[in-house]
Request: fold
Amino acid sequence: MKLNEIKTDSAFDYAYLLKRIFPYIKPLMFRIIATFLLAIPLGLLDGVTAFALKPYIDVVVNGQTLDLHGYVLTRDFLAKIIPPGIVIFAGVQGILRYLNTYFSDWISLTIANNVKIDLYKKLIYLDSKFYDDNSSGLVLSRFLTDPEVASRVLINSIKTLITSFTSALGLIFVLLYNSWELAVVGVIVLVCAFVPMALLRKKIKQVSNKTTVVGGNIATAFNETHKGNKVISGYNLQEDMFSKVKNMIRETFTLQISLTKRTGWLSPIMYIIASIGIAVVMYVGNNLIVAGRLTTGSFASFITSLLLLYKPIKTLGNDLTNIQNIFVAINRVFDLFDFNTRIKDEGKRKLDFAPEKIEFKNINFAYDETKEILKNVSFEAKKGQTIAIVGNSGGGKSTIVNLLPRFYDVNEGGIYFDCVNIKDFDLNSLRDSISQVFQHNFLFSGTIKENILIGNKNASEEDLNKVLKAAHLDDFVNSLEDGINTLIAENGESLSGGQQQRIAIARAMIKNAPIVVLDEATSALDNKSEKIVQKALDNLMQDKTVFVIAHRLSTIFNADKIVVIDDGKIVETGTHEELINISEGKYKNLYNMQFKNQEEILEIAK
Ligand SMILES: Nc1ncnc2c1ncn2[C@@H]1O[C@H](COP(=O)(O)OP(=O)(O)OP(=O)(O)O)[C@@H](O)[C@H]1O
Ligand SMILES: [Mg+2]
Reply:
């Protein structure tokens, strides 16, 4: 389930990748073609100014007459017509350029947005395993950057490719029109000027790939600085962190400056070669003029075209380099699209009742092939019962309850609600039937109210107040200036552990689902908050079928059944009374180690 590392220099199946992005291009096809057609005159018009120089110099400056198949154009007429003509052409070109930029940006933004929307829809429905396997930074960069490159750079490159190509064509036509001998010399020299760039292309790409990797590491380090600021301060890691990031920043500098060292001389060299070309053209041109085979106007027009040709050819070179990057991006986007959730929602039955019996039957489960986590786990719960799951840390307790809402699917065996496999229920209705309080609860950025209403968007004000009371949040909320509309800091940082937990409990309560799954936090709260949280939980558990991973003595005392897990296997089941009497039993052992001292603490607290 891991995202592949896509190599930048791998050979791509270009046709396949274009086929993948085509559905996004297709609805905009008419506009795209119109934009590209617009790019043609835009490029061609570059040649017009250069072309106009010939009649201007020959007729206006040198006083020759121009005979166009019998139409004689006089000096005065051309002197009046050519200068405003050039301005008009520039105006037309300006309008075309604006339209072209506007349309191509509109198209590329639309494509990028559509790809991102579809990609997000894909991502939000992917299963937990995908998120276990791929870091947030990796997924984020694929989501934010790649669709942008895949569409924006694609459209822009094609656009400039067309403009540059037609511009070069127009200018080469002007060159040929004026003198084919000179044109051959000029074009050969100009092409030579781009040889060093082609040679360096690979090196440039290598360095820029390395820069991207280092950039990613800096982002990760920064993320850790933000999230781990308390650990950093508490363990006095500032200096370590500082030198780590400082070295990364310096490494970026070294990489970038080495790139500049390698590429900085490119432009001067290209200019030198191009100027050699112009020198040769001048020399040959002079000979042609002396021999009477070239007019001065043609010569001026020729030199201008040659100078103008430099830019489109350079752009063409850049675009051809870019194309590789575009395909890398398209490849990465559609690589992500190819992930499918492993949790298939194929069940037709709606779960709109509270099951009389919930049965875990011979369950084997592994997160990945390397390590089996649950081994032949079987137990059942009757409607309204509370099942406490206890066992060693890492034994698989959270894993068991994660199977119930199908965050992961079992490898073997199954979970049955009234003898129906949970896979046969519609997934949304299954999840609607389960209220969950996790071991680590996640609070969204937003208000307390918004975070509670996640459990039930349609809850009334009355329900909300009831839940606040039952979760013992009312005193706390009333003490806040903005009450229930108080904003929560990112990750709930502005709240105490107990407050965060009670908000999560309130969220689960307002959902009012028949099945409750509770992963009690292991972190010890003080006695008072412990009691408040316990009361809140008692309210949540009332009249529900409850699976609770118990870390509290009172929870196991109140449970109808205790399931004891040891390294993925159920070793004992029964009530506290039954289990405590098994000599050398796992539960007895666990009780003595984990729960008994709580009893003493409770005694002292009384
Ligand atoms: N998302 C995951 N991907 C891979 N392995 C996992 C994942 N979650 C848990 N594990 C592994 O599965 C085993 C069981 O973990 P689980 O979280 O179910 O333990 P637990 O009994 O809830 O422990 P604790 O009491 O400490 O919460 C552990 O060895 C853990 O390393
Ligand atoms: Mg756990």
Observations:
- The radius of gyration is 37 Å.
